[in-house]
Amino acid sequence: MKWTKDPQAILLLSVHGLFILSSALSGTFLNVYLWKSRQDYTMLGWFTIAQQVALGLTFWAAGKWVKEHNKMNALRLGIAVSGIFYLCVLWAGGHAVDYIWPLGLLFGVSLGLFWLAFNVVYFEVSSAENRDWFNGWIGLLGSITGIIGPWLAGWIITIMHGESGYRFIFTVSMIIYGVTVVLSFFLHKRPVQGSYHWLEAYHRLKEGGVWKYAVWGLAVQGMREGVFSFLITLLVFVATDREAKLGQFALITSAVSLVSYWICGKWFKPKYRKTGMLIGAACMLLVIVPLLLDVNYTTLLVLGIGTSLFIPLYMLPSVSVSFDLMGLNRENVEKRVELVVLRELSLTLGRIAGLLVFIMVLSIRQDTLTITLLLLFLGASPIGSWIFMRKLFAGDKQATYTGKAD
């Protein structure tokens, strides 16, 4: 398939890019906005848990809608609810910290609806041969928006002096979400796919086979994602006390990510997945070590640049191999919605587990060394993920091409 000749594929990437741009503009500073009202790490941990709980439940419940009805409406609603979330943040203002759970649940619903529909459509328009390539383009778009969005937002917040700047950025995000909804109406309606099996995830785990390796690998991967998704940017702000510095951090790290995703998207081949994923996981852990010396802008920048440089080596195989399993046979293809749900539930449970560890530890101590050691512990999870997923890569034919791996 030549993606450049498929207008629907280009349109899907455009919708994804705009959604990520809006998220990059406001999402980077959302936790900072809450932190400035109440400086409490555990509060932000609970906010993120609320998101993940709603995201997981939305994936599972909305799977019936996406499979049996119009999945494009689920995608549009997810974008619209994201806009409503920022409208609520604007309405609450400095009192948003008093509504951590309802706001987190609302945000999680929006993310669940969008990513469930997007992942299913992404699977339908891709194949095992071009999935690494498409993942590279997704990474490229994420990096470009990561360069533009946070830097611009940080600059605007700085020159508008705080609260008014945040309100302006959140309003701009709402407008972009609106434009994205309109653009999504040009995506063709996808065919329905039969009846939704509510307990498919349970049955897959009960049966064992290749999916148990994928589930455990994704769950372990999620432990890092849940905490790192908000803590690193927050630590940059705490270390510098300047939104402009956070915008600069995002600009630099996203620029590195842009290059690394472009290189991997162009030259990374399926036969390198097993080795590449391990190298990426190990290097992502090593770049955390400088924080043991001191947690400042320089050491955090080393972490950010190093992660951006090596994460494509880890993420491209992780994403591609789990989607390849969905196309392994006719039964899997017919149950692709349920398998997308299983994939996301695995990640979500891992994220919640990592966040609970984070909250438990920081409820006892919140000093810099404790936070750094926690980052090292959770930062090692990609290696654990590789231990499970290595059995799924091409070359281990028993695990990859048979119904049972044992």
TrEMBL record:
It is a multi-pass membrane protein. The lineage of its organism: Bacteria, Bacillati, Bacillota, Bacilli, Bacillales. This is MFS transporter. GO terms for molecular function: transmembrane transporter activity. Its main location: membrane. Keywords: Membrane, Transmembrane, Transmembrane helix. The chain crosses the membrane at residues 42-62, 74-93, 99-122, 134-160, 166-187, 213-240, 246-264, 276-293, 299-319, 340-362, 368-388. It is found in: Cell membrane. InterPro entries: MFS, MFS_trans_sf, Sugar_transport-like.
